[in-house]
Amino acid sequence: MNDFNELLGKVASIVKKQCGIDLGQDYDAVMVKPMAATNIIRANKKSKQTHIAITGPSRDMFPYIDISNYSSKDGNNNLKSFYILQVPFHIFKKNIDAISVDASFDYNEQGIATVTASVKMSKHGDDRQIELGNPTQSSEGFVLYRTLFEPEDLFVVLKREEKIEYDTFIIRKRESDGLTKEFAMRVGKTINTFVDSTKYKNDEPAFKGGHNIIYYGAPGTGKSYRVSEKIKHDYIADYSSKQGSPDVFRATLHPEYSYSDFVGQLLPKVEQERVTYEFTPGVFTSALKHAISYPMRPTFLILEEMSRANVAAVFGDIFQLLDRDEDGRSEYTINNGLIAQNAILSDADGAADPNNCSVYLPENLFIVGTVNTSDQNVFAMDTAFKRRFTWEYVSPKVDEASFENNPDIEISSDMTVSWYKLYTTLNDFITRDLGLTEDKQIGPYFIKFGHSQMNPEELVKDKLLQYLWEDVDVVARRMNGGARSLFDSKIASFADLYDSFGKKTVFSNKFIEKLKGSASNDSLNESDDVDGSERAED
What we know:
Elements: H1 4-19, E1 27-34, E2 52-54, H2 68-71, E3 85-92, H3 93-98, E4 112-124, E5 127-132, H4 140-147, E6 154-160, E7 166-171, E8 182-185, H5 197-200, E9 212-217, H6 223-234, E10 248-252, H7 259-263, E11 264-271, E12 274-281, H8 283-293, E13 299-304, H9 311-315, E14 334-335, H10 337-343, E15 358-359, E16 365-372, H11 383-386, E17 390-393, E18 408-412, E19 415-418, H12 419-433, H13 456-463, H14 465-479, H15 494-500, H16 509-518, E20 525-526
Parallel strand pairs: 3-7, 9-16, 9-17, 10-13, 13-16
Antiparallel strand pairs: 1-6, 1-8, 2-5, 3-4, 4-5, 6-7, 11-12, 14-15, 18-19, 19-20
Helix pairs in contact: 12-16
């Protein structure tokens, strides 16, 4: 064992040089461990070693419980996971910034983030070791922390004086200044570090209430935004759809989307000129594994544009799991060995039981879908599938007073109207005057004006006109025996419509009269001859 003060001094000097942090003397143990490749977690790459092995005297800086029936030569191997502690590790923002990685931790005002790592005892030949930081038993933050290491980086752990709390640093090999595997504990005084069993016992109840829900409505009503706001308001306070969350899994369905995409598939892998096949989980299996691994946390599987794929084929046998009891757990299970072996964890060590093929939806898993009503005829959902979801309608109506996506639009040389008046009048005209169903209406965010450098008129031309021509006007003409009432009768083709918009009136008299009747003086300006010969009656 090294001299404690000497080792602490070396570590403090490197940390000070690297990121400007003064460590102080409030520690009673220091461990420096070079990280092997098997200690490092890589995205989308399995590691043969799930934990960080702490052997020899350095294991004494961590709390562990020795079970004689396990430690004995003929001990029961299942007992190695009988006791698992989760201990706090403190991560410093200055250290993360210094190693030049882009990683987001929940730092406090002092720039310190606290994550938890699992600690348990296991056999190591004839000796014992500490298994530290198993991914299925540690917090997401510690798992993320392990992904930041490169092979041969130094994992520096300092035990806070007489506390089961640890400060941790990553030292790149090039900055190690000759420091390698070392360990030291303070001597010369009695050190009492009491383990508070209530502090490290995870008695947080499992989350219940997961269910299946679909948000549906016209295109542009803000269904995806509604989903994100619901998650943020009710479940994950710091959730951002832009940044994502480890508890939220998202996929967009399309006509070619299949069961293999959803659940996972065996894909070839070449290693040293040898081809093997490895299961690559799909979004469902990944979300299911996460939900089962972290039962205290709500997990969301978001499926955008569900009606654009054949959902019966996409879900396959998973359809049977969609019936849920009052807690949110599947009322029925299915036998699917592929999913079970990659998602259903049967013990605390993260190992799957090869004899267990039962699959179910846990109480903390939400399946959330979005459906554009205008796409429902692409792949129709059958009634049996629909009834297993709650359907929440997202209305195109908004409060005009607080509506911000609302520029003025010059629809002709003599007429300017607000977006709110234009889209609401179009929706009313589509159902009342053209006799079409609500699925042809548009939402207030069909065009997001603040997200583009183009002016409002250009956005309407490029985003709205084709929809109105192909999906509204063509259908209305078929229904009305060739009569056309949305556009002026002089508009003979889409090219005419596109070239004329903003220069002269392209809409029919009937629509313009409705637009004039619904628009206020502030949002509609017209010249004295607006009803002149420019526009012919239909």
